[in-house]
Structure formats: C-alpha cells, structure tokens
Design goal:
105 residues; mainly alpha; 45% helix; globular; binds zinc ion; 6 helices
C-alpha cells in the first residue's frame, strides 16, 4: 500500500493501478507493454524529455508528438492493426534505429 502512495503523481504511477503484467507473455511483448504503461517508452516525447532528441516529432510520419497515444494512430504504421500496440511499438523502434535523429541536442 505504501508503494502505491509513493507512486501517485509520478509518471509510473499508472503501474499501481493497472495490476501486474501477465507472466506468460513473450519477453518482447512484456517489455513493450511495461514501457508503454510506465511511460518510459523511448518514443519521441520521452527521448525529448531526456534531452536525447531536439523535438518530440514522430520520425515515421512527422506528427508533432510521438507518444503511446500516437503510436496507435500513426499513419506510417497502417500495416499493423490499430490495437496491436506491441508490433507498432517494435516497428517504431526499428524505424528509429534506421533513421536516427540528426538533431540530437
Ligand atoms: Zn507517426
């Protein structure tokens, strides 16, 4: 209970309310779900917050803010179903490695 209280107001506070991530998942799926739930997703908004990138832009479609919400709406990921956030997440990670930002701050 004390752990839940400490996490309120923190970006990872959602972990206190969503319950545990099922243990039967493949590692890649578990990692993607954890990162997206905790907000430590290594997407544009998070990387910009860390000072790794110059902006929060989606490197695939150019949308102004790349976060977990945009991940499900990105037009550059139409080959994946709208509710397959795990496949979408790893495709974005692959694309970001192929096209790293040159505007690193
Ligand atoms: Zn996009």
């Amino acid at each position: 209970m004390a752990q839940k209280t400490k996490s309120f107001g923190k970006p990872w506070g959602t972990l206190a309310t969503v319950g545990s991530i099922p243990r039967h998942l493949e590692r890649a799926e578990a990692v993607a779900r954890f990162r997206l739930t905790a907000g430590h997703d290594f997407l544009g908004v998070y990387l910009h917050c860390l000072g790794v990138t110059a902006n929060e832009t989606c490197s695939i479609c150019g949308h102004a803010k790349m976060d977990g919400d945009h991940l499900l709406q990105c037009i550059g990921l139409d080959e994946y179903s709208a509710d397959d956030n795990v496949s979408r997440y790893w495709e974005v990670q692959r694309q970001m490695v192929k096209k790293p930002s040159t505007d690193v701050g």
